[in-house]
Design goal:
single chain, 6-stranded mixed sheet, Ethanolamine ammonia-lyase small subunit
């Protein structure tokens, strides 16, 4: 009759015979073991620590990031930065240069690789980080420090908070009586061009672009001999708020620099909406728009110079929007 020790030994032998042979690379990584009898306790001296260095191996993106100096002093990498996003996450690429050129030409998430049927952890974390940035862009406020540096006073629309701004867009197009009085009292009237700034759906866009674009527009218009109104900031504003401003100040052309709805590609996109003699209730087709103003689209300085030229054309044609194309 077999003893319990013999039965255990036979079972262990059968189990070992059913296991596939480890690959050479796996053999290198496996820890060394000593033969231990089943009928006695394991001695501490018989346990050899496993070489865990392979667990610390870096991904291709991490290796390139550290090589290019994209990691900070603590070795952390900003996975949302354009430089890191430009690094392919595929492990085996036949034409890496070709893939990098493709990635450079589109904000789409290509070359991200996979782990079985799922996205890689890096890809998923980047996706969630971009989504968080988009949410922050909508709900955060433009810093008062920036508005003070730009010497902009603030006027709020009828929206009491961000929730009402998102659920009642109609209230973001109109001002309370005291708001209109503030605009009329602090701004010059009967001007050629009235420029103002609004957070819209992305305060991040205002933070990222305002200091580079607003001075360019104002100085460019003044250089053309145009009378420019007093710039200011509208909180919780929609595009059509410009219509009330135009009527209140008797502006020939009104231009609003507004934060656009953020996406997963960028949360810093700004647009300039421009209208000739805007009036309340006018059709949207009468507005001219310059969009995609951000560091990876149209740079703010370049956009500012272009907006000056567009406003000049609108004044010469005495029309904006689709009427400008006729």
């Amino acid at each position: 009759m077999l003893t319990q020790s013999q039965i255990d030994a036979i079972a262990e032998a059968v189990i070992q015979s059913m296991k596939p042979a480890p690959a050479p690379e796996e053999k290198r990584r496996m820890h060394r073991t000593t033969e231990i009898k089943k009928d006695r306790p394991v001695e501490a001296s018989e346990v050899v620590p496993m070489d865990a260095s392979f667990m610390m191996e870096k991904s291709p993106a991490e290796r390139v990031s550290q090589k290019n100096g994209l990691a900070d002093n603590e070795g952390l990498i900003d996975i949302t930065s354009p430089e890191v996003k430009a690094i392919p996450l595929l492990d085996h690429v036949e034409d890496r240069e070709g893939l990098e050129r493709m990635i450079a030409r589109t904000p789409a998430r290509i070359g991200v690789g996979n782990c079985g049927p799922r996205l890689k952890t890096r890809t998923m974390l980047t996706l969630r980080a971009d989504h968080a940035a988009a949410r922050d862009a909508v709900f955060m406020d433009v810093s008062q420090e920036l508005l003070d540096r730009m010497n902009l006073f603030t006027v709020a629309t009828r929206c009491m908070d961000k929730t009402q701004f998102l659920t009642r867009p109609d209230l973001g197009r109109i001002f309370p009586p005291e708001g209109l009085e503030t605009i009329k009292s602090k701004c010059v009237h009967d001007i050629d061009v009235q420029i103002y700034v609004s957070d819209g759906l992305s305060s991040t866009a205002v933070e990222a672009n305002l200091e580079n674009i607003l001075p360019i527009i104002i100085e460019g218009l003044k250089a053309k001999g145009l009378k420019v109104g007093t710039p200011f900031f509208v909180k919780n504003g929609r595009v059509a708020a410009m219509d009330q401003i135009s009527e209140a100040l008797n502006a020939t052309v009104t231009c609003v620099l507004l934060g656009e709805r953020p996406g997963l590609a960028t949360a810093e996109s700004m647009s300039a909406y421009i209208a000739y003699k805007a009036t309340v209730g006018m059709p949207e087709a009468r507005r001219t728009v310059v969009s995609n103003i951000h560091s990876r689209g149209i740079p703010a300085v370049e956009a500012g110079a272009y907006i000056v030229d567009v406003i000049q054309k609108i004044l010469e044609a005495k029309a904006s929007g689709v009427e400008l194309k006729k």
